[in-house]
């Protein structure tokens, strides 16, 4: 130390400062507080059965980092708001808490990335199930009341890189017509085929199966056969020029475009859109954008179920609507809970469909699930509106509905309606024979035609489910569950999306997104355990 520095130290009182001074104790663990969340993560994972993860290591070759250590590192990093593999690796080198949980190991970012993307693949749900099992054993949850809700999380994809299903279908149909016109122009069908098929085209040319890439390739072969019949030294005639021109158009334009459309349809499957930079992502309206411009963005529909603000189950979906996700989500929960299901499910009106009500009853799950008009039906405005179907009287004897003005609506016909999941509903259609002269006609009849009458669609099965749901929701227990739902699941989403800023996934692809959200769910449960223990 310089004399000048020594003189300053002599005049003022400071605590000792010597970077070369050895200190006791030398154990890193002694520097970590007793109630720190890293201890909760460490203790919880030590109690878990990670056999499914260990089975991912066949053995032999270069030694791998211990998967138990890597699991602890990843989960603690997610509780600490560190999601980048490079930053996780940096923390393992520089942060004493990470050094302790890694036992002195310093995996680089490639090792962390491989473990998260490859080793955790297909086993993340089993690891999460072990966490839920631990929560149940430690009496944090009882698996009685399951509060269900969903949210949209933006995908790690370009928001302007969309492919729309309707556009693909329209472009493909236009290309098919161009192919038909071209095939007709170059007269691919010979006289022998005309005699066999009559006025009909060959199946691959559009009369039977639709035109596809294979049919177009077959057409090119036929053109080649026609050209091969021409003498090599003969001067090219008009037919040869026409065939060569057609072949060039097909090979350079029609065939590549048809293959592109077929690939797009294969990626789309049953969806209406996908992103070019993440094929598994579907364009959805994000919740936070509803009050702005309502822009569609590539994303995933995340469904979670909570109890006492612990995440008990989760699933990732490519459909934006919550209604079609409940059955698939509950099947995932069944895997997590080792074949069991929660005693009760509490959800908002987004899940109130005939298919979901029937599934819950068949699965013998108690439910407090609203339907879309539940709150509106309780208002005086709704009860006093005589044009509402719910306020019509029904006569079982005549199978007629009597409107608020006293006119009957008679049965006309019934039809079947299919949901996105393939569920079939039976709809009965009733119509008033004469709405003329009714003072409520303009409000009641939607059609602008002067001769049109009021027509209603009745789903009796759904109406029965709604009546049962209404009685349950208005009971004392129903009021309690309804008041707890926003406190339960909404606060969990608020913590993950608001406090931890998880509004966009880091990884790409459905499988990797499942891993990422699984880690977020486990990290949330660990943080919650640490708070309760403290």
Structure, described:
- This protein is of the alpha+beta class and 534 residues long.
- Among the domains are: 27-120, no CATH class; 163-275, no CATH class.
- 47% of the residues lie in helices and 15% in strands.
- The chain contains 20 helices and 13 strands.
- A hairpin with a 2-residue loop joins strand 5 (296-307) and strand 6.
- The longest helix has 31 residues, at 238-268.
- The protein is flat and about 95 Å long.
- Residues 189-208 have low confidence and may be disordered.
Topology:
Layout: H1 3-11, H2 37-47, H3 51-54, H4 67-79, H5 85-94, H6 96-102, H7 109-119, H8 124-137, E1 145-154, E2 162-164, H9 165-186, H10 191-197, H11 213-228, H12 238-268, E3 273-275, E4 282-285, E5 296-307, E6 310-317, H13 326-336, E7 344-347, H14 354-362, E8 366-369, H15 374-377, H16 380-383, E9 393-395, E10 400-402, E11 408-418, E12 424-432, H17 441-444, E13 455-458, H18 460-473, H19 476-499, H20 510-533
Parallel strand pairs: 1-7, 7-8
Antiparallel strand pairs: 1-5, 2-3, 4-5, 5-6, 9-10, 10-11, 11-12, 12-13
Helix pairs in contact: 2-4, 2-20, 4-20, 5-6, 5-7, 8-20, 9-12, 11-12
């Amino acid at each position: 130390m310089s004399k000048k520095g020594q003189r300053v130290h002599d005049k003022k009182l400071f605590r000792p400062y010597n970077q070369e001074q050895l200190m006791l104790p030398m154990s890193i663990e002694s520097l970590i507080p007793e109630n720190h969340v890293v201890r909760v993560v460490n203790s919880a994972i030590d109690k878990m059965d990670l056999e499914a993860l260990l089975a991912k290591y066949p053995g032999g070759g270069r030694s791998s980092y211990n998967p138990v250590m890597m699991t602890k590192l990843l989960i603690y990093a997610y509780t600490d708001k560190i999601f980048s593999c490079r930053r996780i690796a940096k923390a393992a080198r520089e942060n004493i808490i990470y050094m302790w949980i890694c036992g002195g190991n310093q995996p680089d970012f490639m090792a962390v990335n491989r473990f998260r993307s490859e080793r955790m693949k297909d086993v993340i749900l089993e690891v999460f199930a072990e966490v839920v099992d631990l929560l149940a054993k430690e009496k944090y949850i009882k698996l009685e009341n399951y509060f269900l809700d969903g949210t949209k999380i933006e995908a790690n994809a370009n928001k302007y890189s969309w492919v729309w299903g309707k556009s693909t279908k329209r472009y493909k149909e236009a290309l098919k017509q161009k192919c038909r016109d071209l095939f007709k122009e170059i007269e691919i069908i010979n006289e022998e085929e005309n005699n066999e098929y009559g006025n009909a085209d060959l199946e691959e040319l559009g009369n039977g199966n639709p035109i596809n890439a294979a049919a177009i390739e077959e057409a090119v072969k036929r053109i080649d056969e026609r050209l091969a019949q021409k003498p090599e030294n003969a001067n090219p005639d008009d037919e040869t020029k026409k065939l060569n021109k057609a072949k060039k158009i097909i090979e350079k334009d029609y065939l590549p475009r048809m293959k592109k459309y077929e690939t797009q349809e294969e990626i789309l499957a049953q969806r209406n859109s996908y992103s070019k930079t993440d094929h598994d992502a579907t364009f959805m309206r994000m919740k936070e954008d509803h009050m702005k411009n309502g822009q569609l963005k590539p994303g995933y529909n995340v469904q979670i179920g909570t109890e006492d603000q612990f995440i008990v189950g989760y699933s990732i979906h490519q459909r934006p609507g919550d209604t079609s996700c409940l059955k698939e989500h509950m099947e995932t929960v069944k895997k997590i809970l080792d074949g069991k299901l929660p005693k009760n499910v509490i959800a908002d009106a987004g899940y109130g469909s005939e298919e979901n009500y029937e599934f819950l009853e068949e699965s013998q799950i108690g439910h407090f699930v609203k339907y879309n008009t539940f709150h509106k039906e309780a208002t005086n405005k709704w009860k006093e509106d005589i044009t509402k179907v719910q306020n019509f009287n029904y006569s079982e004897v005549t199978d007629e509905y009597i409107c608020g003005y006293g006119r009957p609506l008679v049965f006309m016909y019934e039809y079947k309606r299919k949901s996105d999941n393939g569920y079939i509903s039976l709809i009965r259609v009733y119509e008033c024979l004469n709405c003329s002269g009714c003072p409520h006609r303009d409000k009641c009849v939607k059609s602008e035609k002067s001769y049109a009458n009021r027509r209603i669609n009745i789903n009796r099965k759904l109406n029965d489910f709604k009546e049962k749901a209404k009685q349950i929701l208005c009971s004392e227990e129903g009021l309690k569950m309804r008041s707890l739902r926003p406190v339960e699941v909404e606060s969990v989403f608020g913590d993950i999306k608001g406090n931890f800023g998880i509004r966009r996934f880091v990884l790409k692809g459905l499988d990797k997104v499942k891993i990422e959200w699984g880690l977020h769910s486990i990290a949330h449960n660990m943080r919650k355990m640490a708070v309760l223990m403290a």
